[in-house]
Amino acid sequence: MLSPEKSLSLSEYGQIRTKALYRLPVRFYVYQFAGLLVTGLLFTALSRYEGLDRLICDFWYDAASHSFPLQHNRWLDLLNHRLLKDLVIATGAVALLYGLVRRQPRLVAVALLMGTGALAVGILKATSHHSCPWDLLEYGGKALSYPLFDAVPANSGPGRCFPGGHASSGFIVMAGFFAFWRERRRLAWSFFAGGIALGMLMGFGQVVRGAHFLSHNLWAGWWVWFSQVAMYGIATTWLVKDH
Question: What is the pLDDT of residues 104-121, one digit of tens each?
Answer without folding.
Answer: 999 999 999 999 999 999
